[in-house]
Amino acid sequence: MGAILVRRNILVFVLDQLSARALDIYGGQFHMDNISALAADGVTVSDCYTTYPLCQPARASLWTGMHSHRNRVWSNGRQCPITPIDESFPALGDSFSAAGYETRHFGKKHDGGALRGFVSSEEKEKKIPDENPAFPFNMDTYADAYTMDEVLSYLDGRDDERPLLMVVDLINPHNICGWIGVNKGKHEDVPIDGELPELPPNFYFDDILSRPLPVQYLCCSHVRQGQTSEWNEDNFRHYLAAYRYYLSIADRQIGQVLDAYRKAGLMDDSLIVFTSDHGDNITARRSVTKQVTLYEEVTRVPLILSGPAVKAKGRKAEGLASLLDLFPTLLSAASIEQDPRLDGVDISAVLDGGELPERKYITSEWYTEWGYTISPGRMIRSGNIKYMRYLEGDGEELYDLEADPYEKRNLAGDESYHDTLERMRDLLSEYIRESDDPFFSLSVKADKRWRSHKPGYENHRGPTAPEV
Ligand code: ZN
């Protein structure tokens, strides 16, 4: 008996800058109705990591299924321009359109050319009025408002017999980046209704001298971090309130898309995917947004597989996964032949109640945002041990996530962890060999003036590298 080809519809939600740790379904403090409903109707992957905690590289990896050092989209551009995705590299849109799918993408691209094979909507803005004086909207929310119009009008009028792969790429909670600019430096917060969110257990940070140089001086390479150097505790709690608010805008829109998708008769045995390109520091170590560091808040992203295609509902699949896994998993869920060039792993067994495949390790990487400072770094996690290596100053970090989930104490200099450190160094070397990673031959770029003040993000004053 031949296998039955399942050509189910697939709907993928990608948010921008959502840390898994922010959500209550991952033990965080923010509850979102529609995201929680997706989790209840599906399987939540416990430890999914982005390939690179920055928009363009993460997205290029997502759509090509390749590590950033392999597809060469390893910055956001400017002083470090990228090479657009090579025609010979895999592309999710190509694979699905070749298999007879209609492939539609709505919203944020920032993909380095990796969305090849999708019909994409335009990236435009629709000005909408603020709904809360404490949380002004900016171009990010305006872009999502435009995207929503496009999505809803498309779903309302869809007339196509083919199975559908549809991506809804919303920018929120990324509006938080511009919110920092509005609230930079010493300031009085606009009061909000209700309780302010709590600061996380790792807001206080007394271990900065043990961290690699680019982490110690994150405030000097990152405009948004520099803008918070004079913030007090309440200012950081307002940051969390704003983050929760912008996330709730996206959550509401997810509910609207799902309603329209259902009304359009597309739900059948659909697979609904929910994820984000990378996380946000959510005030861990007094830090905001993302850059340079490879801590849990910025590298670990939500991954929910949901909808009628998921047979075992409301459970968590425990184990390691990567955004790289999405491409092979979607191929499998649509009965499309696997592509041997992909770096990820097919985790579709979890749809039927199976476990995540065992893997020796998971990785993430950093190079630069805009090229003003360049701080090559690698993260590798095996079991509960996480190791980071930065080229500048030969910086190393080692954490036991079971004992220290908030990465408060760097164990790299601790004699009693010597064997563990050696094992993780070897594992990183093994990965670098196996994935043709040029890491150890990359160059560092960091002017001395960005490594000069007393360490501590609160000690930063004046401009940051991108501002001079
Ligand atoms: Zn600084």
Strand content: 15-25%
Tell me the distance between the termini.
Answer: 68 Å
Q: Largest sheet at a glance?
A: 9 strands, mixed
Helix content: 25-40%
Shape type: globular
- The stretches of 5 or more residues where confidence is low (pLDDT under 50) are none
Bound molecules: zinc ion
Which structural class fits the helix and strand makeup? alpha/beta
Q: Report the strand count.
A: 13
Radius of gyration: 21 Å
Oligomer: single chain
Per DSSP, the total helix count is 13
Average of pLDDT: 97
* SSE ordering: EHEHHHEEHEHHHHHEHEEEHEEEEH
What does the model show?
27% of the residues lie in helices and 15% in strands. It is built from 13 helices and 13 strands. Strands 1, 2, 3, 4, 5, 6, 7, 8 and 9 form a 9-stranded mixed beta sheet that branches. A hairpin with a 2-residue loop joins strand 11 and strand 12 (385-390). Bound molecules: zinc ion. Zinc ion is lined by residues 217, 219-220, 453, 460. Zinc ion binds next to helix 8.
Structure, briefly:
With 468 residues, this protein is of the alpha/beta class. The protein has 13 helices and 13 strands.
Short key terms for the protein model shown above:
single chain; 468 residues; alpha/beta; nine-stranded mixed beta sheet; four-stranded antiparallel beta sheet; 13 helices; 13 strands; 15% strand; globular; binds zinc ion
Topology readout:
Blueprint: E1 10-15, H1 33-40, E2 42-49, H2 55-64, H3 68-71, H4 92-98, E3 102-107, E4 119-120, H5 139-157, E5 164-169, H6 175-182, H7 213-216, H8 218-221, H9 223-226, H10 233-263, E6 271-276, H11 296-299, E7 300-301, E8 303-306, E9 315-322, H12 326-333, E10 362-366, E11 377-382, E12 385-390, E13 395-400, H13 418-434
Parallel strand pairs: 1-5, 1-6, 2-9, 3-4, 3-5
Antiparallel strand pairs: 2-7, 2-8, 6-8, 10-11, 11-12, 12-13
The structure holds zinc ion.
